[in-house]
Specification:
4-stranded antiparallel sheet; about 50% helix; about 20% strand
Length: about 325
């Protein structure tokens, strides 16, 4: 259907469209299956867009066609054991050796990592000190690169996360993405865009909860009336619907600013914070409306509940989003 090429111009083999188009697609996909929305977001926004935005023409010609067609899955590797919210603490190194860089390090919790054919990897060039973070495109099968532990997660179980190991991994200089030392800029810019995608995932999950809980409340009869006629239930649904519209508008605003080339870091953080925290509240209320049935493993609500939690954690926890939003207010 061309979803894996959304936001990439047609002259590069993409489907065209803008960030709002991508948001709509990820919401619709996540409404049915949050795992699939997660796979698409990581592949498109984190793994493919950086090559289009920061890659050389040669890199675009080499990688974009197969990624857009889905012949290879893309991934984005920044997180490490001691570098989660604080990505400046990454320990993976890249040392220049002739026409190659030698990468050494371990990345964890990498979405699509176990199936990725192409990975955007961030490493520090030691002699550049604190300004040494640099991005590289690493292909599956590159000597010294292997995939390790696949994590057993609480939710979004169909979207896999794994550990990636680089041991004397030789990456051609031609596969460096951007200039030496530009990795932090590339990473933060990509994560800003990715947070809009996570907000869209949360919209889809919340919409699924609202639609399914509303239907159940209309059909479930207790005390001779549908439970939706009870104010306690009706108000939960009303607040959920109102907050969902507010979250969608925040997400669309961030996407619009991104498309317009205007600053959107704060708005992306606001969208992710509001949409994902709403998603978790909605999932809890959805289980409550379903009652005992909602707590059973054959209920759709238990899946939404488990999927919702991850949205408040990855690509910047809710606490990090608060920090991002507060920073310009405090002028720090």
């Amino acid at each position: 259907m061309g979803w894996m090429g959304l936001g990439i111009p047609k002259e590069h083999g993409g489907s065209g469209g803008d960030k709002i188009s991508t948001v709509i697609a990820i919401e619709e996909m996540s409404r049915a299956c949050a795992s699939t929305g997660c796979i698409l977001d990581a592949h498109l926004v984190l793994g493919t867009e950086p090559i289009y935005r920061f890659g050389t023409e040669e890199q675009k010609r080499k990688y974009l066609p197969m990624l857009i067609k889905g012949e290879k899955v893309a991934s984005f590797a920044i997180t490490e054991m001691d570098a989660g919210s604080d990505i400046s603490r990454i320990q993976t190194t890249a040392v220049l050796d002739g026409d190659h860089y030698i990468l050494n390090g371990v990345k964890i919790f990498i979405t699509n990592g176990d199936v990725a054919g192409t990975v955007i990897v961030f490493a520090n060039i030691p002699h550049l000190g604190k300004k040494g973070m640099t991005a590289f495109i690493v292909d599956k099968g590159t000597p010294g690169f292997r995939k390790s532990k696949k994590y057993d997660k609480l939710g979004m179980r169909a979207a896999t996360q794994s550990r990636l190991i680089f041991k004397n991994c030789r990456v051609p200089v031609a596969n460096r993405l951007g200039a030496e030392g530009e990795g932090m800029k590339i990473c933060l810019s990509t994560l800003d865009r990715g947070r809009i995608g996570i907000a869209a995932q949360a919209l889809g999950i919340t919409r699924a909860v609202l639609e399914e809980a509303s239907l159940y409340a209309s059909q479930r009869v207790q005390f001779n009336a549908p439970i939706g006629q009870n104010q306690a239930v009706a108000w939960k649904l009303a607040e959920m619907a109102t907050d969902l519209d507010a979250a969608r508008l925040l997400t669309y605003q961030a996407a619009y600013l991104c498309d317009a080339g205007l600053p959107f870091t704060t708005q992306a953080a606001m969208a992710k914070l509001f949409a994902t925290e709403l998603c978790m509240r909605a999932a809890v209320d959805g289980i409550q409306i379903y009652g005992g049935r909602g707590y059973m493993m054959d209920s759709p609500m238990q899946r939404h509940f488990r999927d919702a939690k991850l949205t408040t954690i990855y690509e910047g926890t809710s606490e990090v989003q608060h920090m991002v939003i507060a920073r310009p207010l405090l002028k720090v």
